Structure formats: structure tokens, C-alpha cells
Amino acid sequence: MATTADSSPDTVQVRGVYFDELEIGQTFDDVPAVTLTDGMQATHSAIVGNRLRIARDAVLAERVTGARSAIASPALVWDTAIGQSTVVTQHVRANLFYRGLRFRRVPEIGDTLSTVTRVEGLKQNSIKPGRPLTGLAALHITTTDQHDRVVLDFWRCAMLPCSPGSEGTDRADDLSALGRPIVDADLTEAVADWDLAAFRDRVPGPHLEQLSRDRAWQIEGADVVTSAPELARLTGNLATVHHDAAAAGGDRLVYGGHTIGIAFHQVCRAIPALVTVLAWDGCDHVGPVHEGDTLRSTITVQRSWELPGSGGIALLRVLVKATRADGSVAPVLDWSLYALLA
Q1: Are the CB atoms for 76 and 127 separated by under 8 Å?
Q2: What is the spatial distance between Cα 172 and Cα 70, in angstroms, rounded to a whole number?
């Protein structure tokens, strides 16, 4: 927080940090913890959809996972973690991509999540005449539960403006190696004790052996983007471009997690026997999304393999296009995820 020059000494300007105010190693941990509740999950599902069986069926979740309560939707968990990390990115102009997201634990409803965000890379963007100075901030995000057990560990890259009057910085970090590669052997850490045979017995397919490589699905029934600021508030997302049209240049931008959540809803329509998401191989926001856009996904199996005992993993690529109010169509998301199957 900072005091403005044209305000009284007792007036404090409440704002986020600018790109030129960030430093490598800077840590942001003063963020409210969030207890996941049934009401939060229901509201989240109403906005982005939720056809993931194990997050909707508490009886199935207990038999497969041993959970004492319902399993939290993975989309709710990553949206909460991303929202907590926006204490750094209130001035964000765009979130470009995510890297290395992997579930270390699968939270239940009733668990409480806390997030620490650390600056690990900074790159000043080239100067463009007539445009504000901006830079890219590489952020390492670690989310833990009430027992200090790591739930999520990932990186995101956000574009932030420099402060008014700033001459910019000389930061030129290489962000191409941002994150930690996903290792196949680590993927099942969060679900090592799950009984996938019990899931298979109770849920019709398609199961792993029915998902051949290059199998693709095109979602015919698209989903309209609604309640965008409500989702941002629900998940604690402070980025002003999701709340204030003026900050977004006249038309609010939709929170990237909103687009990903709808895409995941469509993945579960295509593969109704999907057990859960284990990790992201990559996730790039290739175009902006606005409230009222209609989203449609194409899902393709990149590769798959069996796990010892039962079940397996499929790497899926999800390409999402948005149909605008004027009828134009544009790509908005390129997302690869590791899906657990029975």
C-alpha cells in the first residue's frame, strides 16, 4: 500500500504492486486461507459446470478414495489457488500461461487451503510507442492444506504494467524454462491409495482401453460464459480487469480459470468416466474471453498408459474456441492435462 501525493497524510491508496516494484525472491503470503465448503463447490459448479462424478457423488468418493466427505472438484481447487496468488497480480493485463501444475494431494470439502506466491523471473517487454510499459512476471505458487501438506505446486506467467512515470527496468530473465517438467512417475502421488477397481465397477466407460491414441471429441453443445465477476469474487481473484471495465480497456476480461473450468466441464462430457485430473502438461491462454462468449472444445488423446494393478493415465489436449457476440470465432485456450482413468 502507498500514500498518494494528492491525498491527506491519513489516506492510504489500496493497490497492487507494479512490475517495476517486484524483485526476484519476493514472497507474498499474507493472503486469507480458504475453507472449501459445499456451498462454495455448488456455486462454482453453477458457473463453470461440474460433471466429474467423484466430486458430485460422495458415496462413490468414499468407496474409491476413503474420503470422509465429498471430494473437492479439481477446478475449484486450482481456481482457489490461482485466486489467492492474485495478491501479486491485481494490475495484470493478461495471464499468459501456466506450467508444471501437479496435484500432490486431493482436498476434501472442509479442507482449508493457503497459498504462498514467490517471484522467480522478471522480463521487461520491449517498448512500443504509445503503449504503457509492461513486463512479464514468473510466479511460483505453492498451496498447502490445514496440516501444511502440499496440495498444488505450479508456475504462472502474468503480464503487468510498470508504475505510472516509470522508465522501466533492465530485467531480461529467460522465462522459457519456467516451471518443473511433469514426470510420469510422480503423477499418481495424490491418488496412490485410491481403489480404481471400485470406480470401474460402478461407472460405465469409456475406460482407459477404449481411448486409443488420436481419438478426438468435438463438443457440439457449447457453453456460454456467465457470472464472470461472481466467479472472480468466489475464488478471491483480485485482478481489476475482471471487475472493472475501465481497467480492462472498456470491456471486462474473463478470469482464465473460468475458461479452463468450462473446458474441463466439456472434457467430462466427452469422457464421463474420467476419474480426476492429476496434472497439467501446459496451459496457454491464446486469446481473451469476455462474458457472453460461447466456448466449444475439441479434445484429443495424445498418449495413454496403464498403471500397475488397475487404471491408467491419458494425456489429453484441449483446444477451445470462443464465438463472439458478432459471430466471429477465435482460439482462446490450448490446455494439456493428465487424466486418471479406471
Answers
A1: no
A2: 45
How many angstroms separate the CA atoms of 321 and 287, rounded? 9
Identify the band that residue 214 occupies on the pLDDT scale cut at 50, 70 and 90.
Answer: confident
CB 118 within 8 A of CB 85: no
Q: Provide the 3-class DSSP secondary structure of residue 338.
A: strand
- Global pTM reads 0.94
Residue 118's CB is within 10 A of a number of other CB atoms, namely 18
CA gap 17, 235 in Å, rounded: 20
Q: What is the mean pLDDT of residues 31-43?
A: 98
Cβ-contact 110, 37 below 8 angstroms: yes
E-strand spans in the chain? 27-28, 34-35, 94-103, 112-124, 134-144, 150-161, 216-218, 223-224, 274-285, 294-306, 312-323, 329-341
**Helix residue spans in the chain (DSSP H):** 38-48, 53-56, 58-65, 74-85, 196-202, 228-234, 256-270
Whether residue 296 contacts residue 307, with contact meaning beta carbons closer than 8 Å, is answered with no
Instruction: Give 136-186 pLDDT, tens digit per residue.
Output: 999 999 999 999 999 999 999 999 999 998 988 999 999 988 888 999 999
If one counts every other C-beta atom within 10 angstroms of the C-beta of residue 6, the result is 6
Q: What angle do CA 13, 288, 301 make, to 5 degrees?
A: 130
Half-sphere exposure of 166 (CA within 13 A, CB side): 20
